[in-house]
């Protein structure tokens, strides 16, 4: 059955509902319910459960849940071991002012580039106590972490994102060098990273909710926003523990990255290896007993249960969107009128909009590549420019979607809810979109 414009209804309900109510969890449930109603009619109740089953059975859900539970356990153990305090003390030597603390966060985001999940959780968990002490609102920390997540992962050709994209374009006789050639044309992620830097050093004004966050802190309020009904656990550093060597943080992270790279960028392998190293290091140093280690491990898991439920709902909505044919409909709408000069711009805006409303990123690359890559060959458009347009759109969606995994991971690390994150960063996202739009428009005529 062709649903056409009806496929947009669940997403519209979600977006409008979030804007009006500021509540993500309830709006996700309602949107999944409406998807089931459209798909299954009178059998909507069973259909609703079926969508949940489909989401739970997906490799994506299993992968994400293992990651967030694994990182939740790692972060809790890091905190209780005192290693985060030790690593934070080392970073604090450089982060002596609010600006320098944000610059340190930004540089860490560039350094930890191999995976956006690792980036979001490692950077936020190691920097939040420092930025708190320097009276930097958590909203700004969350923005800096988010802006150097997926955007850096698409700009560096040695990450899980770029490896996946290269695998997709291989079907069109393109490869690694073509991806590298596309990097200078990835205008949105480049703009997003630069905007985050300029905001950190004070060369861009603080506007909207970011400005209000700073006013709250300047008036003696907390760095952590007080959000009524927020579904995201407020992440805090336990200051009752004794500070230990920063190596107790650095070594497990290094092991995580090495093992991850060895096993074809599989983050699960890296997390498990890092947890084993944590156990060996902390128990041998008598920082904690085996019983305490497992207790802290369990506490870390429980902090992520709400986030896991939200991800389940988001993926269930994604299953509903797929069954409704939302992505196909949106691509059909956006590709009605195309000229060679406008193709890169249209690809960027179409991919960004679809990624933003569907929350699909890697899957979207697979979906749009068979449309835009052949079009680029047929119309004589530089294929590297087309790769850049697709990856820019996907990075935009990952950074700004209410229920993207990048937003969820940043929430887990900073304690700022997904809705507040997106509302806070939106002015800067729009600025990046404007810059990228102008550059893609120009590139379409020049290259």
TrEMBL record:
Lineage: Bacteria, Bacillati, Bacillota, Bacilli, Bacillales
Cross-referenced Pfam families: Na_H_antiporter
Organism: Geomicrobium sediminis
Keywords: Cell membrane, Membrane, Transmembrane, Transmembrane helix
Cellular compartment(s): Cell membrane
Membrane-protein topology: Multi-pass membrane protein
Protein name, per record: Na+/H+ antiporter NhaC
Residue intervals of the Na+/H+ antiporter NhaC-like C-terminal domain: 153-444
Major place of residence: membrane
Record carries keyword Transmembrane helix: yes
Chain ranges passing through the membrane: 5-21, 27-49, 61-78, 103-122, 143-169, 181-204, 247-263, 269-288, 300-318, 345-373, 385-405, 425-446
PANTHER family reported in the protein's UniProt record: NA+/H+ ANTIPORTER-RELATED, NA+_H+ ANTIPORTER NHAC-LIKE C-TERMINAL DOMAIN-CONTAINING PROTEIN
């Amino acid at each position: 059955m062709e649903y056409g414009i009806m496929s947009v209804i669940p997403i519209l309900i979600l977006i409008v509902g979030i804007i009006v109510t500021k509540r993500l969890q309830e709006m996700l449930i309602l949107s999944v319910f409406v998807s089931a109603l459209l798909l299954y009619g009178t059998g909507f109740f069973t259909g609703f459960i079926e969508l949940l089953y489909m989401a739970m059975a997906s490799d994506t859900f299993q992968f994400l849940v293992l990651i967030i539970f694994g990182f939740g356990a790692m972060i809790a153990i890091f905190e209780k071991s005192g290693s985060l305090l030790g690593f934070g003390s080392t970073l604090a030597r450089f982060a002596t002012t609010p600006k320098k603390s944000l610059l340190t966060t930004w540089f860490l985001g560039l350094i930890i580039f191999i995976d956006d999940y690792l980036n979001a959780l490692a950077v936020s968990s190691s920097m939040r106590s420092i930025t708190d002490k320097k009276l930097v609102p958590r909203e700004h920390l969350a923005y800096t972490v988010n802006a150097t997540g997926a955007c850096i992962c698409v700009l560096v050709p040695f990450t899980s994102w770029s490896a996946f994209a290269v695998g997709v374009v291989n079907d069109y006789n393109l490869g690694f060098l073509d991806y590298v050639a596309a990097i200078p044309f990835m205008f949105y992620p480049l703009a997003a990273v630069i905007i985050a830097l300029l905001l950190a050093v004070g060369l861009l004004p603080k506007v909207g909710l970011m400005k209000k966050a700073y006013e709250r802190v300047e008036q003696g309020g907390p760095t952590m926003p007080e959000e009524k009904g927020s579904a995201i656990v407020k992440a805090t550093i336990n200051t009752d523990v004794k500070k230990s060597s920063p190596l107790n943080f650095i070594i497990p992270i290094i092991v995580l990255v090495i093992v991850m790279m060895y096993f074809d960028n599989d983050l699960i392998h890296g997390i498990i290896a890092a947890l084993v190293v944590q156990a060996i290091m902390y128990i041998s140093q008598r920082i904690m007993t085996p019983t305490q280690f497992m207790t802290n491990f369990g506490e870390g898991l429980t902090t992520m249960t709400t986030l896991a439920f939200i991800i389940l709902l988001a993926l269930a909505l994604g299953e509903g969107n797929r069954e409704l044919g939302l992505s196909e409909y949106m691509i059909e709408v956006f590709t009605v009128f195309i000229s060679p000069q406008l193709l890169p711009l249209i690809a960027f805006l179409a991919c960004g909009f679809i990624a933003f409303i569907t929350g699909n990123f890697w899957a979207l690359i697979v979906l749009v590549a068979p449309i835009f890559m052949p079009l680029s060959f047929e119309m004589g458009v530089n294929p590297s420019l087309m790769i850049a347009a697709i990856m820019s759109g996907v990075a935009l969606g990952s950074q700004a979607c209410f229920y993207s995994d990048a937003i969820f991971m940043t929430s887990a690390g900073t304690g700022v809810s997904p809705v507040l994150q997106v509302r806070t960063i939106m002015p800067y996202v729009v600025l990046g979109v404007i810059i990228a739009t102008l550059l893609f428009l120009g590139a379409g005529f020049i290259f």
